[in-house]
Design a protein that fits this description.
Number of domains: 5
CATH class of the largest domain: Alpha Beta
Radius of gyration: 27 Å
Number of strands: 24
Oligomer: single chain
CATH topology of the largest domain: D-amino Acid Aminotransferase, Chain A, domain 1
Strand order of the largest sheet: 2-11-10-3-9
Number of helices: 25
Helix content: 25-40%
Largest sheet: 5 strands, mixed
Strand content: 15-25%
Distance between the termini: 49 Å
Structural class: alpha+beta
Length: 704
């Protein structure tokens, strides 16, 4: 399917590909950020993420709540205390073609309302392939070091960071509070020497310098980190008590004067032509730098403009990473395994003879679905020239990012004579239920539902995941163990675990791997999660198409579980006032809404939810601090052309003041802001007798 041009995709094809991409990229994030063991190259990851973004741009109504474009990093590894970042550590949007950089510049100019002749400069610097690190200094003293983690919370690696020579322990002339951000890396020479020492000792060798740097920084014993030749480049900052400078370049120079290593290849560029020229200069030097880079990062130089541009959900608008091209490799397809996900999808995975692609050893690759294996898309059109994929084939593995790679091509000249077409299963390999492919669905799904152990276990894993209930001590391994032993069959069972296995003959503390202290800690961690935010609860339910972002949108809109629950009941016919209100939420499309309403009204699922909620104290969704805001709690619709701010700025400001921004006008709308060219929405607002303001009236209402 992925060989089909985005502009040729049908809506059904796009929906299925977005589902597959979300799953693949999610696995890749965990392998890269949490385990320091990438399964695919950076190039393949970036390619898949870019395709995801292109499909979302063409089909915005299909954007998933668990979209890879809404994710930063991955869950934290066990063994380190958590550190909450005062300022989120976000990832960067990616570019791959020169035209992308021109488009980036044009988008910045549009957002800021700049004309073609207006000057706009950028910094350009190598993108180091290492591990992001945040260093907090107070009164000049290093007090804390933390990894990026999921962008909001990282791992406390202060003791380890103190062993890195490039990281100053004390600063002179720095702001009272200064959070320096940069990249921990290892040079090629040091990496080779480390692997030689490791091999001589009979220890673990590393696949590439990035893995070596990440693994070294995240040692639980700081003495091991001290033995590793780590380096650090500073390039950004988080919390500040006083500004470093007025420009990005000035701030980097200030960091250099404070004693940090900054990259000497950082340049100031006047527009896209100079940015691309510097990119090519750096690319030409890539092999001789002595350390790994995977692209060039551009940032708007004026910090006041950066502030005005602000952020998307996971990336800053004022920066972009221009990545280097992807890589390919050929290897043998040894087997095809079928994995069953929490929605029942049967996902084929290629098991490969391990091969190194772009510095990462690859042994697995996605095969998407049965059509992809057969050499066709879901409409029966040929892909890969119609070549099917068979066990024993010599296959081309393509990587463009750090996710599970894909099998891109097949060398028929090396196909074994006895290779047979792959017979995709029509029964679930886990429970034996019929695996049905419904019309319009590119995926075959197990019909077993709650009786399918694979679906049940995956749903439970999702429930205890980081963005859901995040119960410390209850991870994927423990869930599998408890499910296999019949201790936990559904989420509600987690909250009765102490009552059933806290005392008596068969109790948790007597199990292998558990003791009195660890059992008690788990019970306490479970009790802590009885009080849970509405957004986390909705996400934890594991409803198809309802990811973290959408769950939080729903929570903010409905406020309480009782209101949300009743609204979903009222919306059951997928028509009427409650249904229209659900669809009016900015970010909720028809596919998501149908899945949500269906799940919330299925008898078995609802009974399971009711049993769960009976054990919980569901907290009302957090609202923005909007004391004195004249629009807090009101629903606002923007229509027509805004002349004093962009639509994106207007929406962001309204939401910051506690307003709900909707894309459609209804009797529940409070204010319609109508600029020149407003059409049917303004007309409908007037017919309903709603408050209609022009842009000046809106600005006067909110205080400028």
């Amino acid at each position: 399917m992925e060989n089909i041009a985005v502009d040729k995709l049908t809506e059904d094809q796009a929906r299925e590909e977005l589902r597959a991409l979300a799953e693949i990229l999610g696995q890749a994030n965990q392998a890269y950020h949490t385990k320091d063991a990438p399964e695919i190259s950076d190039a393949e990851y970036d390619r898949l993420k870019r395709r995801n973004a292109e499909i979302e741009a063409r089909f915005p109504q299909l954007k998933r709540a668990d979209s890879p474009s809404e994710q930063v990093g991955a869950p934290l590894a066990e063994g380190f205390s958590k550190v909450r970042h005062d300022v989120r550590m976000l990832s960067l949007a990616n570019a791959f073609e020169d035209q992308d950089i021109t488009d980036f510049d044009e988008s910045i100019r549009r957002y800021l309302g700049l004309k073609d002749g207006d000057s706009l400069t950028y910094t350009a610097e190598p993108k180091i392939d290492g591990l992001s690190l945040s260093l907090r200094y107070e009164d000049g003293q290093l007090v804390r070091a933390a990894t990026r983690g999921d962008g909001q919370e990282g791992e406390n690696v202060t003791a380890n960071a103190r062993t890195i020579a490039d990281i100053p322990q004390m600063l002179t002339g720095a702001p009272a509070v200064l959070e320096v951000r940069g990249e921990v890396y290892m040079s090629h020479a040091d990496f080779a020497a480390l692997n030689e020492r490791q091999e001589a000792r009979g220890g673990k060798t590393f696949a590439n310098p990035r893995n070596a740097a990440a693994g070294s920084l995240r040692q639980l014993d700081a003495r091991i980190t001290a033995e590793r030749p780590l380096k650090f480049f500073a390039y950004a900052w988080g919390a500040l008590s006083d500004p470093l400078a007025e420009t990005q370049m000035g701030a980097i120079e200030r960091l250099g004067s404070l004693g940090f290593q900054t990259n000497p290849l950082t340049r100031l560029c006047d527009g896209p032509a100079e940015m691309i020229r510097h990119y090519k200069d750096i690319e030409a030097q890539r092999a001789t730098l002595g350390y790994d880079i995977d692209g060039v990062v551009y940032k708007v130089n004026d910090l006041a403009l950066q502030e005005r541009l602000g952020f998307r959900s996971t990336t800053p608008r004022w920066a972009i990473a221009h990545k280097f091209p992807a890589e390919l490799a050929w290897t043998r397809l040894e087997a095809i395994d079928i994995q069953v996900g929490r929605t029942g999808a049967l996902s084929p995975v290629a098991r490969l003879t391990p091969v190194t692609v772009g510095g990462v050893v690859v042994s697995n690759a996605t095969l998407h679905n049965e059509d992809y294996i057969a050499g066709r898309d879901s409409n029966g059109q040929e892909i890969r020239g119609g070549k099917d994929i068979r066990i024993g084939d010599w296959v081309q593995v393509y990587r463009a990012g750090d996710v599970i790679p894909k099998v891109a091509d097949v060398d028929l000249s090396q196909r074994p004579e006895d290779a047979q077409p792959y017979d995709f299963p029509t029964h679930c390999p886990e429970c034996g239920s019929d695996a049905i492919r419904e019309e319009g669905d590119a995926v075959r799904r197990c019909s077993g539902g709650l009786i399918c152990p694979a679906q049940a276990v995956e749903k439970l894993k999702h429930f205890v995941g980081r963005a859901a209930f995040d119960i410390e001590g209850l991870g994927a391994k423990q869930v599998e163990q408890f499910y296999a032993d019949g201790w936990i069959k559904e989420p509600a069972d987690i909250f009765t675990l102490r009552d059933r296995y806290g005392s008596g003959i068969q109790q948790l503390k007597n199990r292998e791997g558990w003791g009195d202290k660890s059992a008690q800690k788990l019970f306490e961690a479970i009790d802590e999660r009885r009080k849970i935010g509405l957004g986390r609860l909705i996400f934890g339910l594991g409803i198809r198409h309802v990811g973290e972002s959408a769950s939080n949108l729903l929570a903010r809109h409905y406020g309480t579980w009782a209101v949300f629950e009743q609204a979903m009941k009222d919306a059951q016919p997928c028509e009427g006032e409650a249904w229209d209100e659900l669809l009016s939420i900015d970010g909720v499309g028809k596919v998501l809404a149908e899945s949500l309403v269906s799940a919330m009204n299925q008898e078995a699922e609802r009974a399971s939810m009711d049993r769960l909620v009976a054990h919980l104290d569901v907290q009302e969704a957090e609202r923005p601090v909007t004391d004195g805001s004249p629009v807090a709690g009101k629903t606002v619709v923007f229509t027509g052309t805004l002349e004093k701010m962009t639509r994106a700025e207007a929406k962001a400001r309204a939401e910051a003041l506690g307003a709900k921004v909707s894309g459609s006008v209804s009797k529940k709308t409070d204010i319609v802001v109508a600029g020149p060219g407003a059409g049917s929405k303004e007309k409908k607002a007037l017919e309903l007798g709603l408050t209609v303001l022009d842009e000046d009236g809106w600005l006067e209402l909110i205080g400028g």
